[in-house]
């Protein structure tokens, strides 16, 4: 499969790299704020600039700090990202002029074997003119005067990139795993089950800060793709990575889109604007996921916030898996596992039997089990039951436990149909359904999960009565 050229955006903090990235991809997907150092992980996006297609890569701000510090590790991530790049956009702040850190980045870029396009951002108005002239001293020729925020100078950026991208496309082609496989849809717009194995599994990893989400994804990828460290709250943007998992049982390659998210603390503790944006970004990732892995910290056990996150996932109708990370350092693991299982049975009473898996992002323990469970629950989450088989089950369920007759008046449940999948949703038709107790609705939903193979995936059940023509 042909891959578009990769254009990496590099510069010191707060020069507008993420704003330029959002401008190129046409969406506000990278978090942007006035404070420096917002971006910490590489983010990829498909960009189209006046009809020219390429992959834009947003990177962390380049800082001159100790390699062991968080800014130092962010810089190392940026340096690594240049290895796969075809073109580098070196962004400076035209209003601030050329700084010593800009000169240091320029020296480093001149030693790399990647063509560089110098971009003087924030160049709108007269305030950026001195910095624009000063940028010639960096040795990359004529700078592109740009305002990423307002879209000024986009045509000039196109002219600077076009010869480099056309040269790259005329050379060697790039190969990338076939992950975005088209799938066949039925008349309701749902994925046909036979094609489900070819579609990438959209898997989001969520949890409290410092549970090891980024470390877990790095272990799956077998590379330091995401920034990690002992500090809590390192991840801010939700980062999606396309990957292929080799099923150890069949040897089959299974496409997966992994999504790392920011840690989600209690709402009362989130007072920083940037953290609020990060949490909203994580919630959007849940909305677009098929399966969500809630990662617990084995050294801290199950907390109330974990149950709130789990409830959020279930309210969105997403399939849920709970993984206990740091199992390699867990104390009394057997009692810990049983305790968490018991607490989940009580705290998630509406969905008993959620898969609970012990893993270690450091040693790799349990990760294949986690992926197997994720594909299994997606299959259940996408299952459609034929109407005839569904109503045979429905008759048996009513015979085993007939609906009550409040006030001596019978509630008639006539038939059931599945109106959608992902999550599985059913409609029961009958009369006097407004008098049906909630306990009986729960009986039907639990029986659907148990008897029809849906397992621990969220099930939706709606009740519908025919309209009374004499009601008015």
Automatic annotation (TrEMBL):
Q: Name one Pfam family in it.
A: MMR_HSR1
Q: Which Gene3D superfamilies does its entry note?
A: 3.30.300.20, P-loop containing nucleotide triphosphate hydrolases (3.40.50.300)
User: Organism's domain of life?
Assistant: Bacteria
Question: Which GO molecular function entries does the Swiss-Prot or TrEMBL record give?
Answer: GTP binding
Q: Spell out the InterPro entries in the cross-references.
A: G_ENGA (IPR031166), GTP-bd (IPR006073), GTPase_Der (IPR016484), KH_dom-like (IPR032859), KH_dom-like_a/b (IPR015946), P-loop_NTPase (IPR027417), Small_GTP-bd (IPR005225)
Q: Which UniProt keywords apply?
A: GTP-binding, Nucleotide-binding, Repeat, Ribosome biogenesis
**A GO BP annotation:** ribosome biogenesis
State the signal peptide span: none
Ranges for domain EngA-type G? 5-169, 201-382
Please tell me where GTP 2 binds in this chain. 207-214, 260-264, 325-328
The entry's GTP 1-binding residues are 11-18, 58-62, 121-124
Instruction: Return the PANTHER family for the record.
Output: GTPASE DER (PTHR43834:SF6)
Could you say which protein family the record assigns here? Belongs to the TRAFAC class TrmE-Era-EngA-EngB-Septin-like GTPase superfamily. EngA (Der) GTPase family.
Its biological function? GTPase that plays an essential role in the late steps of ribosome biogenesis.
Q: How does it assemble?
A: Associates with the 50S ribosomal subunit.
- What protein is this chain from? GTPase Der
Organism equals Altericroceibacterium spongiae
